[in-house]
């Protein structure tokens, strides 16, 4: 199971991440249907859990199941 933690909403639809300038990184960005997106994440405490091959494989397997169930769509490269 993957857990996410969001501190709240600033009233503008964007989550309060606890980082005061995080919104600056999103300035000028927009979503466009049919375009690919890169999603990056960080683990709690920046713990390097994916140094372990098995943990990385587990994540990939879960992503494949999510794609199979039409929860996400991914493409290689």
Provide an overview of this structure:
The protein is mainly α. The protein has 1 helix and no strands. The longest helix has 16 residues. The chain is flat.
Briefly note the structural class of the backbone. Answer: mainly alpha
Encode the helix/strand succession as letters. Answer: H
Note poorly predicted spans.
1-7
- Give the oligomeric state: single chain
> What percentage of the residues does DSSP assign to strands (E)?
under 5%
Note the main sheet.
none
Distance between the termini: 26 Å
Mean pLDDT: 75
Strand element count: 0
Helical stretch count? 1
Question: Judging from the principal axes of the Cα atoms, what is the shape?
Answer: flat
Task: State Rg.
Answer: 15 Å
Helix content: 10-25%
Write the layout of secondary structure elements.
Layout (H helix, E strand, L loop, with lengths): L52 H16 L9
Outline of this structure?
By secondary structure, the protein is mainly α. It has 1 helix and no strands.
List the main descriptive attributes of the protein structure presented here.
77 residues, mainly alpha, 21% helix, flat, disordered N terminus
